[in-house]
Amino acid sequence: MYKQVILVRRDLKLPKGKLAAQCAHASVDAVLKSDKKTVKAWAEEGMAKIVLKVKDEPELIKFFQQAKDNDLTASLITDAGRTVVAPGTKTCAGIGPDDEELIDKITGSLSLL
């Protein structure tokens, strides 16, 4: 089984619309960086996406780096700063799609948003 996880910083307290847009950026960017065969298999299974919360920027970067260190496709989203947050704010990260067991080894301790 394949899935993708999106990690969201809770300390930013983003409005719902901004949060949704940032999650979409993370999902799409990670998919665009992923192996086409993996994306195809994930799509055939229904494109499972799980949104998880992280405490702050250091925790976001920690999980992003662990994903990269374990050869998982990962995307770190940095906001342009046109609306609610300052330019350069790291808002969320997308990991996968990939084998859910590999992703769970890294993000399994996190809670749902």
Structure, explained:
This protein has a single domain (2-112), classed as Bit1 (3-Layer(aba) Sandwich), CATH 3.40.1490. With 113 residues, the chain is an alpha+beta fold. The chain has helices at 16-33, 36-44, 57-69, 100-107, and strands at 2-9, 49-54, 74-78, 90-99, 111-112. A five-stranded mixed β-sheet has the order 3-4-1-2-5, sandwiched between helices. It contains four helices and five strands.
Low-pLDDT residue intervals, each spanning 5 or more residues: none
Number of domains: 1
Q: Could you tell me the CATH topology label.
A: Bit1
Gross morphology:
globular
Helix content bin: 40-55%
Mean pLDDT: 97
The number of helical segments is 4
* CATH architecture type: 3-Layer(aba) Sandwich
Strands of the biggest beta sheet: in what spatial order? Answer: 3-4-1-2-5
* Largest sheet: number of strands, sense, barrel closure: 5 strands, mixed
Full CATH superfamily name: Bit1
CATH class: Alpha Beta
DSSP strand count: 5
The gyration radius over C-alpha positions equals 13 Å
* Global structural class: alpha+beta
Helix and strand element order: EHHEHEEHE
The first-to-last residue Cα distance is 22 Å
Beta-strand portion reads 25-35%
Task: Please tag this protein with its features.
113 residues; alpha+beta; Bit1; five-stranded mixed beta sheet; 4 helices; 42% helix; globular
List the helices and strands and how they pair.
Layout: E1 2-9, H1 16-33, H2 36-44, E2 49-54, H3 57-69, E3 74-78, E4 90-99, H4 100-107, E5 111-112
Parallel strand pairs: 1-2
Antiparallel strand pairs: 1-4, 2-5, 3-4
